[in-house]
Amino acid sequence: MDMRRATFFLVLLVVSLFWCCDVSAVNNDLSVMSVKVVVENGAGESLKYCKIGVPVDVVIEVKNNGADAQWAEPPITLYDNGRLVESKMLRGGIPSNEKKELRFNLSRGFGEIGKHEVEIVLDPNNHLNEDNKSNNRMRQFVIVRSFERCQIRAGDVNIRKNYQSASTDRPVFGQSYAIDFKVVNESDINVSVLAEISVGGISLERGMINNIRPGQTGELQLRTPYQFEQLGASYAVRGIIHEIYDEMGHPIPKTDCEGVWESVKQVSVVAPLPPKKLFQNNNLKKKGNKK
Question: Is the CB of residue 120 less than 8 Å from the CB of residue 77?
Fold first, then answer.
């Protein structure tokens, strides 16, 4: 009888320990593994930059780290700078130690220029019985701009007797020259730039070249002709791009734009031809014409 009673209490103890520990519920955990902002229906690395209004997808990967199959279908919410965008259910659950991809489509893209914090929250109302809640959130950042490609190039610096003549690198001492600086827009939007023309390190003209269309060239010109003052001297004539603005007037940092920001033309100042030499040259031309 004592043996039966001892066996009964032993079985009761084992059953009590089983229910107390609830081993079937041990190690339940879903985690957000990655968040990426990609082009619509695209893949690859998360975008650092995207154009305002262009459709994108937010692609997330969720893993079941638990020992058992995860039957729950918790909501997953998408936030943009703290604002709720959309919530989806993780349909069908995820088998143990496996991953599942979920995709949010932003058909109108991002609506504001600037830095966006894209945040994914798994089970935002904490309805899921998990051992670890700290891995239910993840953030990704993207910069939204008014363009996809920004590429500006400093073009030619021209020194001419007038704006119809050819450019020279041997200006004549004492004569006046028009100077212009070209800027080439190879972006996908209209841009305006703040540009400068300098000679020998001295600024001669600084101003805006407005509304340069994609694939087109803008120009900054000296308002008054320039005379090179030292005979035999060499000068560096520079065209410089200082600032860039998009078509809405927002500044574009140079770090966000590919470009060549300066163009240099090296010139040497020469003496004018003496009058006698000029007369001889004219006579030679006339004789040649008679032939």
Answer: yes
pTM over 0.90: no
Separation between Cα atoms, residue 246 and residue 259, nearest integer Å: 15
Q: Which long-range contacts (CB under 8 A, 24 or more apart) does 92-95 make?
A: 93/64, 93/69, 94/30, 94/62, 94/63, 94/64, 94/70, 95/64, 95/69, 95/70
In this predicted model, what pLDDT tens digit does every residue of 117-148 receive, in sequence order?
999 999 898 888 888 889 999 999 998 988 88
What are the tokens at 290? 């008679």
Residues in the chain: 291
Amino acid 176: pLDDT: 93
- Gap between the Cα atoms of 263 and 179, Å rounded: 13
Closest CA to 118 of 38, 53, 36: 36
Helix, strand, or coil here: 226? strand
> Which two tokens mark 11?
């079985």
